Amino acid sequence: MNEEAVKKVILKEDEDYIINMGPQHPSTHGVLRLEVCLNGETVKHMTPHIGYIHRGMEKMAEFNTYKQLIHLTDRMDYLSAHINNEAVCLAVENALEVEVPERVQYIRAILDELSRVASHHLWWSAFGMDLGALTTFFYGMRDREKVLAIFEESFGSRLLHSFNTPGGLMHDVHPNFRKHTREFVKYFRKKLPDYKNLLTDNIIFHNRTKGIGVMDKEMAINYGITGPSGRGSGFSCDVRKVAPYGVYDKVVFREILYPEGDSFARYKVRVDEMQESLNILEQLVDDMPEEGGYTAKMKPVIKLPEGEYFQRVEAARGEFGVFIVSKGEKYPYRIKFRSPSFSNLFVLGPLAKGGIIADLVAICGSLDLVIPDIDR
Amino acid sequence: MNSVVRYFTDIYKGVTSLWTGMKVTGKYFISPGEIVTEQYPENRATLKMEDRFKGEVIMPHDENNQHKCTGCGICEVNCPNGSIEIITKKVPNEQGKMVRAIDKHIYHLSMCTFCELCIKTCPFDAITWGQDFEHAVFDRTRLTRVLNRPGSSLKKKEVKS
After folding, report:
1. Residue A328: inside a domain, yes or no?
2. Residue B36 contacts A, CB cutoff 8 Å
3. Do B13 and B63 have their domain in common?
4. Which residues of B touch A152 (CB under 8 A)?
């Protein structure tokens, strides 16, 4: 390659000022290195470097049985651990054509929504903190604690609860589960106005996020942006609506869409989604059957019939997909995870281009990246 | 003219949005309502974890130093990370026949991911969750534990009368 071509590939010039944001930078929320090429304070080019905590989960899963590999999916997107578990369980159940009890489907959906609310709590706290509003961190964490208390009571762990298993759940939920979920919905409805007054209506926050990192619908589709980030660009991609799984076709809810595509639209989608999750929770908790057991009858050793299986679910950050190739053995022949944060990361470069470095932090926060989900 | 109006509306908007935000924080400053923080090391005596809390894997022993583990090794097979090692020995039973019994049930807490498969699959309910969560140690080898106590034996099955 001649010198000209080398320059074109690495997109750097001699006089460029290169700064490494990360791997240990508070605003990247994990070990992500952003190589930022600067001209003054303006970002000329941004390259993400990933793989600092790559654990080889897809390969590891090939040596684990279907029950054992559930706990690996917890450790990808740790904030929506339950939703990731559900994706694998649904794929295995669909492959075996097992009918899980309706009660299990209801419990799974309730836990999905609780996880989503807890995940958005943490995102809201950290997003405010990234932009210099430390108060939001305490307020968000205070409300998230209520959800984690429900989790801890039923599953014994707060974050990585491998509670799903192919065919149902590990245990029955705690007797107080329904009561405490109702209490949480009631509690959080009262706290939502605080969220609006503190951050949504704040003029400094508006100036930091409005018109920053504008992503149009076409761009969102081209980059495969799903979840709240995609819906902030008006891309209707909610798997709960597009391809309903579990009991999501029985509940009434609204898909939140904002067409603006800037950081503020992505913020609004998530805050409105918290409200919408509360509406879903109210319906599910009332309809949840009291009887029906917590697991379907499964063989002790699960062997999938030969073939290929795919299942997608709506995780807190977007579409989470599991693709299993089975050769009829108790281990999967190949497993592929489609994680939302991996796709969402690579739009960060084009969005940050031309803005200032402080905007890069705002865009990075509004995309809501979870680094273990990128590296797997 | 227009810019002058915008200048003053911006100031007005800024002050009002600041005031709305300060009202929320001020409200909690004056009347915090429920205290959500815990004084952790000081409240150790009263701190009670949930019954299902996953602190560590333990093997309950009764007052005669007897446990329920037969050394079948199902937990070892089901563990995804190899955090359980079962070492068995041969001991004579009442009829003088040599049978398999547990010598050491080794549990590596440092490798455990708390997936609960060992406890769930144990056919004898020999192991369960312990509520202890203060696992910080200076030496990594101290996280490797032998779950069955020295001199312990298998609990006899209760004869139905």
Report:
1. yes
2. yes
3. no
4. 50, 53
> Mean of the pLDDT values across residues A47-63?
87
CA-based nearest residue in chain A for residue B48: A153
| Site of tokens 């300060």 | B22
Q: Which residues of B touch A201 (CB under 8 A)?
A: 17, 20-21
How many domains, chain A? Answer: 1
Residue B156 lies in a domain: no
Asked if B53 is an interface residue toward chain A (Cβ–Cβ < 8 A), one would say yes
Q: Are B104 and B87 in contact (CB under 8 A)?
A: yes
Q: Over the stretch B38-55, which tens digit does the pLDDT of each residue have? A: 888 888 888 888 888 888
Provide the CATH number for the domain around residue A327: 1.10.645.10
Which one of B21, B116, B129 has the shortest CB-CB distance to A202? B21
pLDDT over 80 (residue A3): no
**And the tokens for B69?**
């583990």
Q: Which residue in this structure is represented by tokens 């639209």?
A: A265
Domain count, chain B: 2
The predicted pLDDT at position B35 comes to 80
Task: Show the domain range for B109.
Answer: 49-151
B contacts of A159 (beta carbons < 8 Å): none
Closest residue to A203, CB basis, from B17, B50, B52: B17
Which residues of chain B are within 8 Å of residue A204 when distances are taken between CB atoms?
Answer: 14, 17
Task: Indicate whether B158 belongs to any domain.
Answer: no
- Give the pLDDT band (50/70/90) at residue A261: confident
For residue A363, give both structure tokens. 């865009």
| ipTM associated with this complex | 0.81
Residue pLDDT, tens place only, A72-123 = 888 888 888 888 888 888 888 888 888 888 888 888 889 889 999 999 989 9
The mean pLDDT value for B118-137 works out to 86
Tell which of B8, B12, B76, B116 to mutate to test the A interface (max A CBs under 10 Å): B116
How far apart (Å, rounded) are the C-alpha atoms in residues B156 and B105?
A: 19
* CA closest to A204 among chain B residues: B14
How many beta-carbon contacts under 8 Å exist across A and B?
66
